[in-house]
Amino acid sequence: MTATAEAQHSLGVVESFQEQFSTTFDTCYTWNYETFKVSLRNLYEKAKHNQWDAQTALDWSIDVDPEAENLPDVNNPLFGTDLWKKLTPAEIRKFRREQLSWSLSQFLHGEQGALLASAQIVDAVPWIDGKYYAATQTMDEARHVEVYDKYLREKLDKEYPINANLKTLIDQILTDSRWDMKYLGMQIMVEGLAMAAFGFMEKMSNEPLLKDLTQHVMRDEARHVAFGVLSLEGVYADLTERELQERLEFVYEGCRLMRDRLYAVEVWEEMGLPVEQTYDIVVHSETMREFQKLLFSKVVPNVKRLGLLKPWLRDKFAELDILKFESLEASA
Predict the structure, then answer these.
(1) Average pLDDT value for the chain
(2) Are residues 218 and 192 in contact, defined by beta-carbon separation less than 8 angstroms?
(3) Total structural domains in the chain?
(4) Could you tell me the CATH number of the domain that includes residue 99?
(5) From CA 170, how far away is CA 59, in angstroms rounded?
């Protein structure tokens, strides 16, 4: 194959995996290089000192059994139900692999969304410290995509497509023209929920490579959420009533989408489970309800710190049964 033919073949392979859509937002130069938010400059300095190499920081030689109980079976919302009791030992092993593959696949796709969003923030944010830090986050997110892709390919040998609810929210974030909505959607909601999910996985994981990988990612993500809180503090004080309501509705819709993203329908289909019956069991599972509420423990206090926990959103958060997290400490 000639070099030209090889290049055309490679381009064709890449294009077969692409999805393109139009985005519109203002690119903002800033000709003032002074520090206006010392907290952001400090966060940038911390980010520079805490970069790590995915290839050398983790021990990829660790052998992983993808069908072992790498996460406790009791955390599966189907555990102990009649559907679970009908599974053979071989089917339970397969279920573990599929469930973990699905969960890490959503982390992978979410990290690519964060990669694209943080690159947009470099363009759109109007102050230099925001651009500096967003550039370090873009590097962080590239590394996170790298590690989840490597783990899925080399250790689990299975990857699932992006969940429709997660995709909807990321598309909204990337196509919104307002720079603050990119922060609000990605840094506050997606990253905030991811922090709680990572914390749960790190605590529960029995697999040393996954635990170490998650710890490394969590250290980066903690800065990312703080970046959103520090950047948006004071931004919403002078909005018009209509502008403020748009942000409140965006937060609620994002939380609703993230709540619904946890239903692993693709796994149930792969396992041959009756989808409607499984959905009904999972929706009413105490394990799932508590896990859903736990995820918002990082989001609600941050939303409150930004001054967005207005009566309308308080009522919506009460409906989601997550208002009780408002008294927790904000991420910054």
Answers:
(1) 92
(2) no
(3) 1
(4) 1.10.620.20
(5) 31
Print the domain residue range for 267: 88-327
Question: What would the two tokens of residue 306 be?
Answer: 């930004």
pLDDT in tens, 176-214: 999 999 999 999 999 988 988 999 999 999 999 999 999
In a domain, 266, yes or no: yes
- Answer yes or no: is 36 within a domain: no
Q: Which two tokens stand for residue 34?
A: 């002074």
Cα 324 → chain centroid: 22
